[in-house]
Design goal:
This protein is α/β, with parallel strands linked by helices. The chain has two domains: 109 residues, Rossmann fold; 120 residues, Rossmann fold. It is built from eleven helices and seven strands. Helix 1 links the parallel strand 1 and strand 2.
């Protein structure tokens, strides 16, 4: 099996949750059946949201260095569980001697496979502003729908709550009440005519873990799970 290199810290909990889902989704009958993994979580990578909003330094040098460390530690390929950071993926990928999977490309392939034609994309404001999913999904004949301004701000508040652990109880970030906030956003007018909604920001699936026990108004796709399944397939091919 190939060794997975996880470019983490974008944010830290999203990277940790990706590794959790990688383990949970791997068909294993014991420890020896799980994938070899190198995870580097570097919280000092400059904010991607700030840079893409014109308010901070570029994280690209730090991201390249982080990806390079993964290869030095034995990673056979790299995954980056962050939709926002995919803005920098072409430059990171070009600097590597090993393959790098793209969460955007993997989402597009999955959405096309299941026959979705209109996809609601719920992520960070830069994901919406820079239309990070649009071209790749359009190449698969999928139209993208983003939230209205109020719903986008409420989504960012939820994302920052996960990043800063400002949830209902310390150490308990994926609480049912926060899932209720997410369900409310998913049920608003912006998503009325979509076939499904993607939790694009990888902080959102942390909260969305409870959506299985709530009444989500539309079918939900988790970007974290899609990338995890792609990593498992690549590692075992």
């Amino acid at each position: 099996m190939k060794t997975v290199g996880i470019l983490g810290g974008l944010g830290p909990l999203a990277g940790a949750y990706f590794y959790l889902r990688l383990c949970e989704l791997t068909p294993a009958s014991g420890d020896e059946d799980h994938l070899p993994v190198v995870l580097d979580s570097d919280p000092e990578v400059p904010s991607r949201v700030n840079h893409l909003s014109g308010q901070g330094p570029s994280p690209l040098p730090a991201l390249r260095a982080l990806a390079g460390r993964l290869v030095e530690c034995g990673a056979d390929f790299v995954v980056m569980p962050s939709s926002t950071t995919s803005y920098y993926l072409p430059e990171i990928r070009a600097s590597l001697s090993v393959p790098m999977l793209s969460i955007v490309e993997e989402v597009a392939a999955t959405v096309h496979q299941v026959g979705i034609q209109r996809l609601g994309v719920l992520g960070t404001t830069p994901t919406r502003t820079h239309h990070l999913y649009d071209a790749t999904l359009a190449s698969r004949d999928v139209a993208v729908v983003y939230p209205d301004d109020k719903s986008q701000q409420d989504t960012m508040d939820l994302i920052w709550a996960v990043k800063t652990s400002m949830m209902d109880q310390p150490g308990s970030v994926s609480t049912p009440s926060r899932s209720d906030v997410l369900v409310d956003i998913l049920g608003r007018a912006w998503a009325r005519d979509v076939d499904a909604i993607l939790l694009a920001c990888t902080e959102l699936p942390v909260v969305g873990r409870f959506l299985l026990t709530t009444s989500a108004p539309k079918p939900i796709l988790h970007s974290t799970d899609i990338l995890a399944r792609a990593a498992i397939a690549f590692a075992t091919s």
